[in-house]
Amino acid sequence: MKKITDYEHKKILVLGLAKSGIAAASLLHELGAFVTVNDQKPFEENTAAQSLLEKGIKVICGSHPPELLDEGFELIVKNPGIPYTNPLVSKAMEMNIPIITEIELAYRVSEADIIGITGSNGKTTTTTLIFNMLEEASKNPLIAGNIGTVASEVAMKATSENQMVVELSSFQLMGVDQFKPHIAIITNVYEAHLDYHQTKENYAEAKANITRNQTEDDFLIVNADQEELLELVSFSQAELIPFSTVRYLEKGVSIKEGKVFHFGEEVIGLRDILLPGKHNQENILAAIAAVKILGVGNDAIKRVLATFQGVEHRTQFVAEVNGRRFYNDSKATNILATKSALQAFDQPVVLLAGGLDRGNSFSELVPHMSGVKALILFGETADKLEEAGREAGIQSIYHVDNVEEAVPLSFNVSEPGDVVLLSPACASWDQYKTFEVRGNIFAQAVHKLKQSQ
């Protein structure tokens, strides 16, 4: 860790705890700052706040009072989930108090180069692929950010021998100042998180912050199939490395005649890649572009791609049961993600879907349901999804109470060679605390089914 003096004797407010707030407060305290932590959860229920108090850090809990700013803070480190419309945050902006997120701290203290990955879809898979490929090639990677350990906590332990592979959200990237990854990746940009960003333009601009401070000595890897994305980052000073799944790029990473090429060199055949789907091809191309910069050879890349089954809950292969292949895509909490999952398979699909009703229809799914032979539906949106299924011409549609009931039924209505896909197109909160819980219940039911056959 770099021993910086930027924060020494400065009054700094850490707003919101969770993992990133705890790590930020601890790091700033170690760097000599006068830290105050403010968290909404009451102190008596807040074990994190209690542990920070024991370190000598000032703690204020129960609410986010705007008058707290009267104490004269020179900097705020904000939890990414707290919106800028929060009254305390709004007042801080009016007072011109700088507001950053914890990823900025990680950058400033890290001795390791950072590989930053952002985008609407594919961040976690791309991040994991890069980490696995670097690890396979003995490049000493560390994984951090939205996946794995909080970035500043990892940065405290990183040395110049490491590579920090960091998944980054638009929320985090809104709060950067000097942050500059050596390698930046934007997988794609679609309309998302409008409740936080208000407009797609604001959301896209936040994503573009990943390359804002890059220089000609850095690298920017982008999806060349999105013209608007190329325009968005046209200001970047970094060396641009494009990737494409639809056209061959002599200078970039792309696919031709069933093979992946990196700047004209064949890397791997698509048939040798275990991970299914065109959307995952984008993630694979982006990962190859990144690791090639760091000297990873084709053999290491091939070994990873021949065995990588997917990130948990993201089109993850669970098991094969009497010729049916079961996939867990519980992370598909919106229509766009389920579209991508359906496009991943050429085989007939039994689709398990449903969940929280956010008021939208599912007509956008209809053109992508041509390969769906049966629908098994649950949750608040079951009736709406049935309407979409009928419109798509699907004859076999069933309603069940939950995911656990859906699994044995899916086996009974499928045949060897079929895919059974949990891709709900909805959030889980009507029945399950998180999409992870929903996915785990699905996987457990699949393994129970396999044991019974």
Automatic annotation (TrEMBL):
Residues 313-426 form the Mur ligase C-terminal domain. Residues 117-291 form the Mur ligase central domain. It is found in: Cytoplasm. Its EC number is 6.3.2.9. GO terms for molecular function: ATP binding; UDP-N-acetylmuramoylalanine-D-glutamate ligase activity. InterPro entries: Mur-like_cat_sf, Mur_ligase_C, Mur_ligase_C_dom_sf, Mur_ligase_cen, MurD. One of its GO terms (cellular component) is cytoplasm. It catalyses: UDP-N-acetyl-alpha-D-muramoyl-L-alanine + D-glutamate + ATP = UDP-N-acetyl-alpha-D-muramoyl-L-alanyl-D-glutamate + ADP + phosphate + H(+). Keywords: ATP-binding, Cell cycle, Cell division, Cell shape, Cell wall biogenesis/degradation, Cytoplasm, Ligase, Nucleotide-binding, Peptidoglycan synthesis. Pfam families: Mur_ligase_C (PF02875), Mur_ligase_M (PF08245), MurD-like_N (PF21799). ATP binds at G119, S120, N121, G122, K123, T124, T125. Pathway: Cell wall biogenesis; peptidoglycan biosynthesis. Its main location: cytoplasm. GO terms for biological process: cell division; cell wall organization; peptidoglycan biosynthetic process; regulation of cell shape. It is an enzyme of class 6 (ligase). Gene3D superfamilies: Mur ligase, C-terminal domain, Mur-like, catalytic domain, NAD(P)-binding Rossmann-like Domain. HAMAP family: MurD. Cell wall formation. Catalyzes the addition of glutamate to the nucleotide precursor UDP-N-acetylmuramoyl-L-alanine (UMA). Belongs to the MurCDEF family. This is UDP-N-acetylmuramoylalanine--D-glutamate ligase.
